[in-house]
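From the pipeline queue, job 12 of 40. The input is one protein chain; the requested action is below.

Action: predict structure.
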Amino acid sequence: MLELNIRLIGNDEAIPYDLLLSADPSEQALMAYLPYSTIYVAYLQDKLVAQYVLYQIDAQELEIKNIAVDDAYQGKGIGKLLLEDATLRANDAGYKTLSIGTSNASIGQLYLYQQQGFELSGVKMNFFIDNYTEPIFENGIQCKHMIMLTKVLINDTL
């Protein structure tokens, strides 16, 4: 089992732009949501290996706006641990749903998110065409549409 330490980024810490941009190549998009978001970083020993960003949609819903694992550490279950951590934090904070979006071409992410209890909830047609200046390709497929997935949270209210 990995000894992954996931924690809120400190105010005095550098923002992990390399990881953020690996998940969302638009600096403009990052700058639009980061000031209103919370960044969590994940370390193995002293090495930053992953991060995710939570953004409040409203009083009921949080969205994972950005999630990334360093290429050298992919395939080791870190993404799953990040999703579990985000789910726990959202649930503990009393949110009803946690959402995440990914490209129509992000086959591995769609698989992982559904394995972790996220269900398809919508499609933002032409999102990547309308919001990015350069075409983006994954798995040999052009990213055109944002596939939205949502997980209903179970809050312990007893």
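Job complete. The chain has a mean pLDDT of 95.
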